[in-house]
């Protein structure tokens, strides 16, 4: 279902069966396997620390796993009640901040130093599920949706008044399903097997 990397030597994967695997490139067998780590149909995965990964699932849970610990329970379990988590991203300079998107089009920010509640929850201006997201090194959050929109939230955080977001791609269009960032270039993949390349300059 999802794969995440941390540098050149650490990989982690999670499948629909909830099996969480820690991998090393060039080594055929997993370094560690946690069977049944996630029973809520996992959808997304990201490293948030050197030995910690966070997994989002359709049951609305964000589970933080310590891969260096022998414990077979998550180190932290956050519940986004009533939502199906479809994507997540870690802030590049403030590693305790994680953004999540949902099938309903909701968007949330979580502070992993806190315990239970999202710092911010709001409805993204889209007509479909959020598909992927990534933080820019300068702090803005880019995310795409199944309605074909690609949006940028310049200052993610608790809103002071109306939240403004810039539309880099407007619907209607082919549903967007993946997103990546390299310098000023933004790459977005579509369900029609095309690749959109945009410059933020």
UniProtKB/TrEMBL annotation:
<dbReference type="InterPro" id="IPR036322">
    <property type="entry name" value="WD40_repeat_dom_sf"/>
</dbReference>
<dbReference type="Pfam" id="PF00400">
    <property type="entry name" value="WD40"/>
</dbReference>
<keyword id="KW-0677">Repeat</keyword>
<keyword id="KW-0539">Nucleus</keyword>
<dbReference type="InterPro" id="IPR001680">
    <property type="entry name" value="WD40_rpt"/>
</dbReference>
<keyword id="KW-0347">Helicase</keyword>
<keyword id="KW-0853">WD repeat</keyword>
<protein>
    <submittedName>
        <fullName>Putative pre-mrna-splicing factor atp-dependent rna helicase dhx15-like protein</fullName>
    </submittedName>
</protein>
<keyword id="KW-0067">ATP-binding</keyword>
<dbReference type="GO" id="GO:0031080">
    <property type="term" value="C:nuclear pore outer ring"/>
</dbReference>
<dbReference type="GO" id="GO:0004386">
    <property type="term" value="F:helicase activity"/>
</dbReference>
<keyword id="KW-0378">Hydrolase</keyword>
<keyword id="KW-0547">Nucleotide-binding</keyword>
<dbReference type="InterPro" id="IPR015943">
    <property type="entry name" value="WD40/YVTN_repeat-like_dom_sf"/>
</dbReference>
